[in-house]
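Recall from the previous chapter that SMILES is a line notation for molecules. Here it describes zinc ion.
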Amino acid sequence: MPHKAGPPPRRRVKSVGMTDAISITRDLVRCPSVTPADAGALGVLENILKAAGFEVHRVTFSEPGTADIDNLYARIGNQAPHITFAGHTDVVPPGDESAWTHGPFSGEVKDGFLYGRGAVDMKGGIACSVAAVLEYLKDNGGKPREDGQGSISFLITGDEEDVSINGTIKLLKWAAERGEKFDHCVLGEPSNVEVLGDTIKVGRRGSQSGTLHVEGMQGHVAYPHRAANPVPDISRLIVALSDEPLDHGSAQFQASNLEFTSVDVGNAASNVIPGQARAKFNIRYNDNHTQESLRKLVEERLTKACGNRIRARIAWEPSNSNVFVTKPGPFTDLAVAAIEAVTGRKPELSTSGGTSDARFISSYCPVIEFGLVGQTMHQINERTPIADLEKLTQVYRGVLDRYFA
Ligand SMILES: [Zn+2]
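With both inputs in hand, we obtain:
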């Protein structure tokens, strides 16, 4: 029997259905998008964002010798300030599928965890940003700001985990050619180390590899005076280049480091003095250097160590992993405040770890990385606590509230 005056309609505490972070994560995880496959992952986002009023572009990039890659760019609003949420829907292979307690592409939820490849790296992070933006728009009349200012976009690639050739680097260029201007970027990579809220990544070291070549003169070991052995020489040069620090760190970074990773003379004979020797090395460098100044510094040290006797040179490998840092300021402050409000933790502003697409984005606008907890990424049984998906969504929501306030 209906009451005359029924109970008040139940208040919806948070959005449910297809557009909350958990169901979006599940939908994405169920697409086996191991690089370079898309497997429908971008289509999941396209549908949701179109329904929310975004202008959505699907852009495919190709290059001889590489797989074609799908990418997605979606924007709502056409004014500044413009905040973009970046990420990748591709994932690394699952490894031995039988070793997973829940299928790697099942998106199964068990005991408070969502399982699956990409759950933390980084379909979960993308899902939280989409859910947060949708909720924010719903509460603000469908627009970034009531006065018509402001833009929100998504910059999503399917090419991050492998060669990263047909992904973010080209998508950014494509967007720039369309006249897109980004003011700030949040990249939802799993930045946290132990617990949600412990770390924002505000920069990364640069990476530069090279090979040291030393020329000698081949000869018989019994007649060393008629040969020039490059083995002792390359040893001296390795010690010289390794021993002298490149710097002592900077405000945001640890000290740069040059590390030799292999030495090779290609000599199988024990009675021959080899004619050449080479050694490979990699440098992780901080913001005391640019790629150019770093190469110059190392070459100067090599010249000094060679004196006028040793003949050596360095062959540099091409590198697009330049150092970058987003200095502490209003943007990092508002992210820290949003994280603290939700998690009760004051995150460290870190520059440690390997590279990500932030190195490309940093040429266009300040970028910070904040996402889920990285502990299980790339592992068997990759999983995220459901509670973290909810909290990360609230953090992104807090970022949006503060950004457009
Ligand atoms: Zn990732």
